[in-house]
Specification:
Layout (H helix, E strand, L loop, with lengths): L20 H23 L9 H8 L6 H18 L11 H11 L2 H13 L5 E8 L2 E8 L10 E8 L6 H4 L3 H11 L3 H8 L1
Antiparallel strand pairs: 1-2, 1-3
Helix pairs in contact: 1-3, 2-3, 5-7
Length: 198
């Protein structure tokens, strides 16, 4: 069962001016597509050909012989999750369950912003900043390259911010902080976060 590139949950121009249509043409249309194409080539004719994406990520994690398989499968999953972590007219202070949990678990919204930016800005090279649910509480974490909280049985991903350069370079050049500000203030999909909290 070959995987296909998931559709974006909005038009490619819908996140402008914070993330341009040109960035999404490359990021979704080229980078994400390449991970899907590579993944299909790697699983074809193997015992994982009919496995779910989550199963492939978990089975390949930590196995050096399956590093290529893990990297491509995890990047397909991470990117799909990232697209849903954003919405047109998003960002700003959350509402609902996630807002209450940010107050109780993370010291309030302003502290969340500071710590989430520190996770994204402190990730050397390529990677991801995450809001996860762990042991019943929200936590902020970061992962390098294709790594994902999906491989941690104790963690449930709630929201992610891609800090690979290709996520922002066309719009913000080398200014990851400006991209992170735009993501937090204008793009975060708090409805998606609340849905993931169940």
């Amino acid at each position: 069962m070959a995987f296909s590139l998931p559709e974006l949950p909005y038009g490619r121009g819908a996140l402008a001016p914070h993330i341009s249509e040109e960035t999404l043409n490359y990021h979704h249309g080229k980078h994400h597509q390449a991970y899907v194409t590579n993944l299909n080539g790697l699983i074809e004719g193997t015992d994982l050909a009919n496995a779910s994406l989550e199963e492939i990520v978990k089975k390949a994690a930590g196995d050096k012989a399956k590093a290529g398989l893990f990297n491509n499968a995890a990047q397909v999953w991470n990117h799909t999750f990232y697209w849903h972590s954003m919405k047109p007219g998003g960002g700003g202070k959350p509402t609902g369950k996630v807002a209450a949990m940010i107050d109780s678990d993370l010291g309030g919204y302003d502290q969340f912003v500071k710590d989430f930016k520190a996770a994204g800005g402190g990730q050397f090279g390529s990677g991801w900043a995450w809001l996860v649910l762990k042991d019943g509480k929200l936590a902020i974490t970061k992962t390098p390259n294709a790594e994902t909280p999906l491989t941690d049985p104790a963690a449930t991903p709630i929201l992610t911010m891609d800090v690979w350069e290709h996520a922002y370079y066309l719009d913000y050049q080398n200014s990851r902080p400006n991209y992170m500000d735009a993501f937090i203030n204008n793009l975060i999909n708090w409805d998606f976060a609340n849905k993931n909290l169940g």
